[in-house]
Amino acid sequence: MPVRADAPITITAFDWVPDFARGQVRDLRVRWALEEVGQDYAVRCLPQGRQKEPAHRALQPFGQVPTYEEGDLTLFESGAIVWHIAERFPGLMPEDPAGRARALEWLIAALNTLEPPIMDRSIATIFEATEPWSAPRLPGIDMRIAERLQEASDRLGAAEWFTGRFTAGDLMMVSVLRIIEGDGLVETFSNLADYVARGTGRPAFQRALAAQMAGFTGDPPPGFDEWMAQLQAKQGEMK
Predict the structure, then answer these.
(1) Directed axis angle between helix 134-156 and helix 224-238, to 10°?
(2) Is 75 helix (H, G, I), strand (E, B) or coil?
(3) 119 burial class (0-12, 13-18, 19+ CB within 10 angstroms)?
(4) Residue 183 C-alpha from the chain's centroid
(5) Burial (Cβ within 10 Å: 0-12, 13-18, ≥19) of residue 107
(6) Which of 32, 167, 202, 227 has its CA 20 to 30 A from that of 175?
(7) What are the φ and ψ backbone dihedral angles of 42, each rounded to 5 degrees?
(8) Higher pLDDT, 227 or 206
(9) Is 180 in contact with 121 (CB distance < 8 Å)?
């Protein structure tokens, strides 16, 4: 049986995001980790804009989600939270020191090596798509992503998981790779596509995803429809 938390766990999440962000907001990573280790948690949902207010910045100085509260402990950054969960409760961490080090290695690789160029692509194609510099940057961004994916594919080979068994490192690698799932990048490497499918097929991931999607009950902020119309027009030009 999993160890139960001594104090209730509360995380923060948004009550609304655009359709393209649903299933990608980083509280999903924390939800997934908690589901893997069998821990209950509560969610404090924030309307868009509330994350920038002083009360939330006291928990997350950069005005983002998620945060994690367990008794007197408050954490921010999804990687740090997932690592804490993996160390706090059994299920996501090997027992031997070398295995733990390898799990941490792949968690950091996901965040430091793979995610930066992948998020550059999101900035160029979504958040700054209407800016004149975005379209010219896209070929270079895709080249860097392809290089990293090739390297990850080479290392994974025919293995099921990067760390031998499913760990917090694999949870984060899958979380990052699925950001570009469906864009024709991960799909170029059949072993990576299968790897992502194995991760997202886990019952704990499915429970976490369903919980996040069910929490999107809020309304968009003022001006969103106009911004979305501009974005869609620009994305059409970039194709």
Answers:
(1) 80
(2) strand
(3) middle
(4) 17
(5) buried
(6) 227
(7) -105, 160
(8) 206
(9) yes
Q: Which amino acid is at 225?
A: D
Q: Which of 27, 21, 26, 22 is nearest to 9 (CA)?
A: 27
List for the chain the helix, strand, coil content (%; round to 5).
60, 10, 35
In one-letter notation, the amino acid at residue 179 is: I
Residue 1 has pLDDT above 70, yes or no: no
> Is residue 14 within 8 Å of 45, Cβ to Cβ?
yes
Spatial separation of the C-alpha atoms in residues 66 and 235, rounded to whole Å? 29
Burial readout 5-20 (b: 16 or more C-beta within 10 A, e: otherwise) = beeebebbbbbbbeee
DSSP annotation of 166 reads -
Angle of helix 78-88 relative to helix 97-109, nearest 10 degrees, comes to 160
Dig out the tokens for 179 from the structure: 């950001």
Q: Is the pLDDT of residue 232 over 90?
A: no
* Residue 3, pLDDT above cutoff 90: no
Judged by DSSP in three states, 14 sits in: strand
- The pLDDT assigned to 129 comes to 85
**DSSP-derived secondary structure letter, 114:** I
pLDDT tens by residue, 44-90: 999 999 999 999 999 999 999 999 999 999 999 999 999 999 999 99
**For residues 189 and 112, what is the distance between their CA atoms, to the nearest angstrom?**
21
Q: SS3 for 26?
A: coil
